[in-house]
Structure formats: C-alpha cells, structure tokens
Amino acid sequence: MRVHDITLTRDFSSDDLKRISMKAGHYLSEIILLKPDAVIDVKSLLGMMLYPLKKGFVITIRTKGKDEEEALDFMCEIMDSR
C-alpha cells in the first residue's frame, strides 16, 4: 500500500473528475482519496462527482495493488498539475 498527502493547487471541474476517473480505471490497483469527510473510490465516477475537490483541500491518496506505485504517481501528477 502506498499513501501520499497532497494539497490541491486548483479546483477540479466535473469534466476533470470524469477524466481522472476514466484514466484511473486503467490501473489494477485500488485508488482511494481520503478527505476529512469522505472516502472516495477514484474509479467510481459517481463517487468523484459527489465530493468536490477544491483548491486548498488537503487529501490523502492511497493506492493498493499490483501497480500501486504507478497509480500513485499518476494521481500525484494529476492532482498537482497547474
């Protein structure tokens, strides 16, 4: 299992969340975002849409599975993009 905390540098639109969810589906590993008020399965489009990701939020990214390192790298890159 890999875990990384990150502070979001921008707001994510519904299109951004859809794109992230679709790309996350290419990984075998479980990809979870942890917020103080939610546990979000990144591969679940509905889950992603229910909890907005806004600039300044601190989230924890947790990956677990065969390609967990690659999945974590992907999530860190996309969440930290400017």
TrEMBL record:
InterPro entries: HPr-like, HPr-like_sf. Residues 1-82 form the HPr domain. This is Phosphocarrier protein. The lineage of its organism: Bacteria, Bacillati, Bacillota, Bacilli, Bacillales.
